[in-house]
Amino acid sequence: MKRLWVLLFAVVLSATLAVGCARAHKTALNNARTSLDQAKAMGVEKTAPYEYYTAESYLRIAEHEATEEGDYKGAKEFAEKSQKASAEAMKAGGGAK
């Protein structure tokens, strides 16, 4: 009976962690999209093209990792890189400080 409870606990814990990871990558993707949209609205694709297109590429990779590969940790990492590159683009393009 004790083994059953341990197994049940392990299953519940695993499910909880999986749901938490799924939410984290979605939040990171949304934040990255928002940052990239802000950068584009500022016109930094012309004033800081390297940083802008780096952010755009990282976002595409993050979306691929999440939807095609099911790698939510990878998706979160690339989304965070995209958001950072968007911030750098806005700074280099004369926007965010």
Briefly characterize the structure.
With 97 residues, the protein is mainly alpha-helical. It has helices at 2-41, 44-47, 49-69, 72-92.
What portion of residues belong to β-strands? under 5%
Class by alpha and beta content = mainly alpha
* H/E element sequence: HHHH
Low-confidence stretches: none
Descriptive overview:
With 97 residues, this protein is mainly α. The chain has one domain (24-92). Helices cover 89% and strands 0% of the residues. The chain has helices at 2-41, 44-47, 49-69, 72-92. Helix 1 runs antiparallel to helix 3 and helix 3 (49-69) runs antiparallel to helix 4 (72-92). The longest helix has 40 residues, at 2-41. The radius of gyration is 18 Å and the shape is rod-shaped. The chain starts with a helix and ends in a 5-residue tail after the last helix.
Task: Give the helix/strand layout.
Layout: H1 2-41, H2 44-47, H3 49-69, H4 72-92
Helix pairs in contact: 1-3, 1-4, 3-4
Features:
about 100 residues, mainly alpha, 4 helices, about 90% helix, rod-shaped
